Amino acid sequence: MEYLLFQRECAHLVRFCFSKEVMTTSQLQDAKTNMILYDHPIWKGIIQLSLPVFFVNILKTLHDVVDGVFIGQMPDQGDVAISTLMQSAISLTWPVYFIFLSFGMGLSVAGNALIGQYVGRNDMVNAKKYSFNVLILSFLLGSLLQSSSMPSPL
What we know:
Number of strands: 0
Structural class: mainly alpha
Oligomer: single chain
């Protein structure tokens, strides 16, 4: 039964995607919500929601590998192993990137939990207040981390 519901919802999305009809944003959001939460087991929805994060991490890793390959081929300058120094500089970027990513994920998870509690209680005033606070806090935290990571002028 669940598989038939999943097939029906997927067929509905494909029909709207490839037809000349225009699907409104709310219709698309409702179709995605039904497909992720109600029409099949929750683990499939979790996989669908985790794919963007997975691809971002794959791209970051591939970026570092490509950097390592090209920088590893640079010739040394006399007694100084330039390629080794450059490799170590590249390997230092991942922890810094992950710290920034962790701040963003933590703020996102905490904000979603608080906002979800207020929406569940039908307290839209506090939900909007907390969503605004999370937005401002994320902007300020992003600005602070960006300014702290900028190199100082020589």
